[in-house]
Amino acid sequence: MEEVESREWYLAAYAAEGVPTSDHLKLRTVTLSLSPDSIPEQHVILEILFISVEPYLRGRITGREDGLYSPQFNLDEVIAGFGVGRVIRSKDSNYVEGDIVVSAFTSFAEYCVVPSQFVARRIDPNNGIPLPEYISSIAVTGLSRSSNQRVPGFAAWVGIELLADPKPGSNVFISAAAGAVGMCAGQLAKLRGCRVIGSTGSDEKVRLIKEEFGYDDAFNYHTETNFDAALSKYFPNGIDVYLDNVGGEMLEAALNHVNKHAKVPLCGMISGYNKVWTEREGVRNLLNLIGKEVNMQGFMVGSYVHRFGEFATEMESHLKQGKIGYSKLKIFHGIETFLESLGSLFTSSNVGKVVIQVK
Ligand SMILES: NC(=O)c1ccc[n+]([C@@H]2O[C@H](COP(=O)([O-])OP(=O)(O)OC[C@H]3O[C@@H](n4cnc5c(N)ncnc54)[C@H](OP(=O)(O)O)[C@@H]3O)[C@@H](O)[C@H]2O)c1
């Protein structure tokens, strides 16, 4: 086999606002040469098996650098993320055909050529860990530093363990609580002995996080739409920690319930990702931060790479002892589902970490 056909997603037009459509992201078929001469040194060709679909991708196709945190894709560029693939050709002596690897740079495609510096590690497919776990929230076994920025569990760990650092008995609130970051963050806060409440977008997810991820309670923000009233009910003693994944109205409501010296790590603000900044809901009560001496802090996991080893060791130990469960996955099948799977992040339709199973 000297060449292979591959379908790949590329950026046809920037989407300044709204959920991206087929006007912005398009699928095309390309032919990839597999002949050794055509592969650069220190590169591998991957047959892509799983690829992670994450909210930050939305910020990379707005056409403007406006505070969302990753650089823009160029027009016509193939969209790339974090994935698991099988090596089918190698120009790097560290990898041989048939190796299953985690790659920090994986095209949203069926096959792609990857500089081996982005290949995080080889996986033993028989080690009992399901392959999508390597790009999900929790399983981190042996991931190298080059891939750590994409492990949502690491974001949860930085937010809860490093920035919030809650005491036993602290009242912790987590939004998007059933998502990739949220399901891990809740379990970490429970291990700290906190009382943990989540908000999420369906009754099914409310049940899931209470029954499977140990949340003490949770509410569906689509049915309990008066967030201020909901937080009064769930936090009679106020909020000591709020891990914000959604921003907007929920952040504003949470700031009405913070206790003295509360911590508010800002992980993400997905409610605003499809809007230009002037259309996003404002937070009108920042004044509360002053009198209550609240510490509200944005963070990027990429700034904590030096702590990744610590995180990996802790998480492995939690997993082995059954203190933390494997993540819940929402698997879309086939590379053609990328647009649908990306759009699903901005609804409450999926349960768990969104992954595409390409093969
Ligand atoms: N700072 C960092 O380094 C870092 C790293 C990773 C992720 N993040 C951020 O962390 C957040 C969670 O990421 P994730 O990967 O765990 O995604 P996720 O929670 O698995 O998926 C996104 C979820 O957000 C919720 N959502 C969508 N639109 C919403 C809206 N308008 N209002 C409220 N909730 C909405 C939906 O769940 P519901 O059912 O709850 O509506 C959806 O399932 C995102 O904001 C992401 O950008 C930050």
Helix content: 10-25%
Query: Number of helical runs?
Result: 9
* CATH fold description of the largest domain: Quinone Oxidoreductase, Chain A, domain 1
Q: In percent terms, what proportion of residues is strand?
A: 25-35%
Give the name of the CATH architecture of the largest domain: Alpha-Beta Complex
Cα-based radius of gyration, to the nearest Å: 21 Å
Shape call: globular
- Record field, number of beta strands: 15
Helix and strand content put the structural class at alpha/beta
* C-alpha end-to-end distance: 18 Å
CATH classification class of the largest domain: Alpha Beta
Characterise the protein shown here.
Helices cover 22% and strands 28% of the residues. It is an alpha/beta fold and 359 residues long. The chain has 2 domains: 3-136 and 327-357, Alpha-Beta Complex (Quinone Oxidoreductase, Chain A, domain 1), CATH 3.90.180.10; 152-302, Rossmann fold, CATH 3.40.50. The strands form 3 sheets. Strands 3, 4, 5, 6, 7, 14 and 15 form a 7-stranded mixed β-sheet that branches. Strands 10-9-8-11-12-13 form a 6-stranded parallel β-sheet. Helix 2 (152-164) packs parallel to helix 3. The longest helix is centred in the middle third of the chain and has 13 residues, at 152-164. The chain is globular, with a radius of gyration of 21 Å. The two termini are 18 Å apart. Mean pLDDT is 91; it is low at 140-149. Bound molecules: NADP nicotinamide-adenine-dinucleotide phosphate (NAP). NADP nicotinamide-adenine-dinucleotide phosphate is lined by residues 54-56, 152, 155, 176, 178-182, 200-202, 205, 245-246, 267-268, 270-271, 299-301, 345-346, 348, 350, 353.
